[in-house]
Amino acid sequence: xxxxPPPAYDAPADSPIYANKELYxxxxxxxxxxxxxxxxxxxxxxxxxxxxxxxVCRITAPQGAQVGDLNIWNxxxxxxxxxxxxxxxxxxxxxxxxxxxxxxxxxxxxxxTITADTLSTYGVxxxxxxxxxxxxxxxxxxxxxxxxxxxxxxxxxxxLVRAVAQYGLVESDVHDVLNVFQVTGxxxxxxxxxxxxxxxxGDYFEFFIMKxxxxxxxxxxx
Length: 222
Ligand SMILES: [Zn+2]
Description:
By secondary structure, this protein is an alpha+beta fold. The chain has helices at residues 21-28, 84-90, 141-148, 156-164, and strands spanning 46-52, 56-60, 68-74, 77-81, 100-102, 110-117, 130-133, 178-186, 192-195, 204-209, 215-221. Strand 8 and strand 9 (192-195) form a beta hairpin. It is globular, with a radius of gyration of 17 Å. The termini are far apart. Bound molecules: zinc ion (ZN). Zinc ion (ZN) binds at residues 138-139, 155-156.
């Protein structure tokens, strides 16, 4: 097989596209970090919260294998929100430590930089799957009804819509997600598949909230 062309978005190593690994390693390993807030998100629910610039947010797997759908907005201007597909182009289809999660146009800023990922060595499994998925998006009641005829309003999309209402956001504000701890890939026909989450108790995925915006808020739903 002919090798693929080089990556389309291949910036110089010192471009702001890429994180300063030394700096973000120091943040990840900073001994003076203290816990400011904590929330337990139960299965098939979602939670919205605010994280300040300069803070680190850690998502854990307290009961082992599980996945969550992450949305991110600028809390001062929710028109600026996470752009999954551009992030996929700039970094990779499945993100990990030092990748950045970028905002939509016309902002195009790194909202967060990933500082740690205990599943960073997962690599490519025997099915071709990788972890922390940017290929897919949230499940939703509309496609579920079209495919099965059933009505069920506890999909990730529905949970996310309910969770963010307290911040004045509406259904159309919910956007494509980062599926944290989710293994996915494309089969030989290019069809999207999902595998079992490899997350074990104690695994975590964390990111630093960039300094140029005062506040962000996030949502995570199972
Ligand atoms: Zn779902």
